[in-house]
Amino acid sequence: MAGARHGGAELFFERLAIGFHGTGMTQQLVIKPDGDRMARLTAAGLDVTGCGFSPLLAALHRRQIAAAIRRGKPDVVLSWMNRATMMTQPGGCPHVARLGGFYNLKYYRGCDWLVANTRDIADYLIAEGVPKDRVHYQINFVPDGREGPEFRGPVFEGPEGDGPPPDGPVIAALGRLHQNKAFDTLIRAFAALPDGTLWLAGEGPERAMLGDLADELGVGERVAFLGWQDDPQSVIRGADILVCPSRHEPFGNVIAEGMACGRPVISTRTNGGCELIEDGVNGLLVPVDDVGALADALAKLTADSALAARLTEGGQAYWQATLSPQRVTGDWIDFLERVAG
User: Fold this and answer.
1) 225 DSSP β-pair partners
2) pLDDT higher than 90, residue 88
3) Rounded to an integer, what distance in angstroms lies between the CA atom of residue 253 and that of residue 141?
4) d(Cα 149, Cα 32) in Å, to the nearest integer?
5) Which residue ranges form the domains of the chain, and what is each CATH number?
6) Cβ(29)–Cβ(46) below 8 Å
7) For 114-154, what is each residue's pLDDT tens digit?
8) Radius of gyration for the chain, computed over Cα atoms and rounded to the nearest angstrom
């Protein structure tokens, strides 16, 4: 896996590898060197090798990956996203590649199987000519994020040194501060609320613009930029509502995180939002880039505790049936065993 330090696909890679390890599966991980990620995976008991995955040194890194495969003698080779897939030569083993978006398939032509984490991506692969019997749909999981000693992690209480938060609900949104995430639309919708706090957890090229926008709309003191958070679920647990306002979201791990944490979720009608949410049952859906509709959904949810409780219950039920680690890890193992023969 050659991925960024932060990101939903990278986080799920870690979670899945650790989940596989918990079942007794033998793995050898080859990943782009990242001290924190390698430390977490090693601490979990996994065998981890660093590889640069640089296009400028592609021949060298292909040899390193091939050597790791020869040493490990795996039953299946699983690659994650474009660069790792392009550089992987499995040497006779079945090659499975996992896609979390509508990627350019030139990187995947030599693979035996392609795994899509949404039905829309699976349909895209088939439409692009991948044989249907070589496309496998497998959704992501997220761990149980509810409060309590039997569950994972603390509750985030807000930025240090800011004093008590203003009155009203705490609304959280997480992700890269990039135009695809539409945090500008969220800030405009949030500005229509008379009170409350908005937490934005992430970093990215739009950080300065978003701060300026909040100030221009008169809500600068009510919008807190938290930076990247190593434990996103703690942020969600500290909030009253989770919002995913994206313009483009193939899956939307953060939506699943909200359900797992027992928080009501509002999402735009992206591919991922529509994949995970049945409007009014386990969340609320609004049109992309519709400030008024998002503001109305926020106002409705903050004013109606019964609705919030019903959506939370629906989200938890969906998480348990579809997105739990036990369910998804078991499905992955069944699939890989079929591939291995």
Assistant:
1) 200
2) no
3) 8
4) 34
5) 8-141+325-340 (3.40.50.2000), 170-323 (3.40.50.2000)
6) yes
7) 999 999 999 999 999 999 999 999 999 988 876 543 344 55
8) 21
